[in-house]
Write a structure and sequence with these properties.
heterodimer; A: three-stranded antiparallel sheet; 3 strands; B: 439 residues; alpha/beta; Transferase(Phosphotransferase), domain 1; Rossmann fold; six-stranded mixed sheet; 17 helices; 38% helix
């Protein structure tokens, strides 16, 4: 059960992780892209 | 992609509110919520992927306050429409404030951040695990301070706060973050906007003060009706509210303050809801090593119970024991979050039962005394039946006292104490039938 690290350039379940958009009190938001989804995420 | 903060020292509410968001967001549809594209659970890396809404939240406008009445009317109307759509989908947002509101290029308001939301058909983990109201203090409706989380009109109150703030530049209930300061709104009404701004339109004061009514029944019955009034200001029925220049007289305030039971309707009876939704069965599970055979027996007992009660809900509880004097770390030696590891272990325990999401909840309680924590959880959540295992290891029992004995003796509901047969313990086998004792 290795923890995947979240950082720009990493990949998680097909989602390519981009820059960090927001750092909140309870969560962080990352911009991501997925080859099958055209809507910005 | 939204990833919860679960490192050392973070508030366990962050985990629970993420669980809520993860349950609720994929169930939502329509232009007023972000689209959800996928999620990952606590087994590996928790996340949700949502559509990116361009632009900024309303929070960005705080520097421009107060804004013109007409602009505020249009903005509040869009938010009310979005709330109506959300409430229609059985969800109460519970954290309406400028930073949870965005707008599409096409104009519709989009509500974001569902971590504190309540879904009518899903278990409410925040209600069940935390006694304090979570939310944003200046915007929180008074009934929330009394533990009511199932009234959609709480969102109308928050929108009223926002509208008051955006049109006057002043927060109606200040910025107090203390529970004591927040509780004032249970009896003290805000200054009427016309006292602050003599040119405040009558129809707008009528709407704002109605949203801010202490009793939910005096507010607009639905978000749609509020949206309608905001769309047709000339048709707003003006009452005495619209012309007021002073707050309620002190006699009224005192009456509200000291006769709470008389002035507030009792929150919706949990008993009625419980009868409708079926009984709640709580299973206390030890995730420590060496409890395998006992957990097998607990599962077999739970399976038998659930087979006879098709509408029953199963709550799996584990107590993360805190030291009495030591400073506890939230991470274990490998850097994993203990709270989450326990949640995952509980889900694994329950997975062979193949229960639907709406019938199963898992809870990790953090407490010094496990028996008291279980008793409090079951009392608060009106659990009908507790299933708990008895420790076989007499050494452990001598040192720690019997949790099951205390629960069985003090619980207000039926308790089943499960003991694995001796042979199963000896051979570490789990196929034998458990012996259940009704206490």
């Amino acid at each position: 059960m290795a923890k995947p690290s979240i950082e720009p350039g990493a990949e998680l379940d097909g989602f390519a992780i981009g820059e960090r958009v927001h750092q909140g009190g309870m969560a962080t938001l990352w911009s991501v892209t997925h080859p099958g989804i055209t809507v910005p995420l | 992609m939204k990833i919860p903060r679960i490192s050392e020292g973070e508030d366990p509410a962050a985990i629970v509110s993420f669980e809520m968001e993860q349950m609720i967001v994929p169930r939502l549809a329509g232009p007023h919520v972000p689209l959800c594209f996928g999620s990952g659970d606590f087994d590996r890396q928790p996340y949700v992927v949502i559509e990116r809404i361009p632009g900024k939240t309303l929070y960005d406008r705080l520097g421009d306050l107060p804004i013109p009445y007409e602009e505020a009317r249009v903005i509040a109307g869009k938010i009310a429409t979005a709330l109506a759509d959300l409430h229609r989908q059985n969800v109460i947002h519970h954290d309406i404030k400028p930073s949870s509101i965005m707008f599409r290029d096409s104009g519709e308001a989009v509500l974001i951040d569902f971590g504190l939301s309540h879904h009518n058909q899903l278990p409410d983990l925040l209600q069940e695990e935390f006694r304090l109201p979570y939310g944003t203090a200046p915007y929180m409706a008074p009934e929330r301070l009394l533990g009511v989380r199932d009234d959609p009109r709480s969102d109308l109150f928050s929108l009223g706060v926002l509208l008051y703030f955006f049109t006057t530049g002043v927060r109606p209930f200040g910025e107090s973050e203390t529970l004591r300061g927040m509780k004032r709104r249970l009896w003290r009404d805000p200054y009427p906007p016309r006292k602050l701004k003599p040119d405040y339109p009558l129809w707008l004061q009528e709407i704002v003060l109605r949203c801010l009514e202490i009793e939910p029944v005096w507010r607009h019955p639905t978000a749609s009706q509020l949206a309608f009034e905001l769309a047709h200001p000339d048709q707003v029925k003006l009452t005495a509210r619209s012309e007021r220049l002073q707050r309620d007289p002190l006699t009224t305030v005192w009456r509200r303050r000291f006769n709470r039971g008389l002035t507030l309707p009792k929150p919706k009876s949990d008993v009625a809801a419980q009868l409708a939704s079926g009984p709640i069965v709580a299973v206390a599970i030890d995730t420590e090593e060496g409890s395998g055979p006992l957990n097998e027996c607990l599962r077999a007992t739970a399976e038998q119970l659930l087979a006879t009660l098709p509408s029953a809900r199963l709550a799996c509880i584990n107590v993360l024991k805190l030291g009495r004097i030591t400073i506890d770390r939230t991470l274990d030696e490998q850097g994993n979050n203990k709270h989450i590891d326990r949640l995952v272990a509980l889900r694994h325990w329950a997975s062979p039962l193949k229960l639907d999401e709406s019938r199963l909840t898992v809870h990790v309680l953090e407490a010094i005394d496990p028996a008291s924590a279980i008793l409090e959880f079951t009392a608060v959540n009106r659990v009908d039946h507790i299933v708990i295992g008895a420790r076989q290891n007499s050494m452990m029992r001598t040192f720690l006292g019997s949790v099951s004995a205390k629960v069985a003796a003090e619980a207000a509901c039926t308790v089943t104490v499960v003991r694995p047969p001796r042979s199963a313990v000896a051979q570490d086998k789990s196929s034998s039938t458990p012996k259940a004792i009704e206490a």
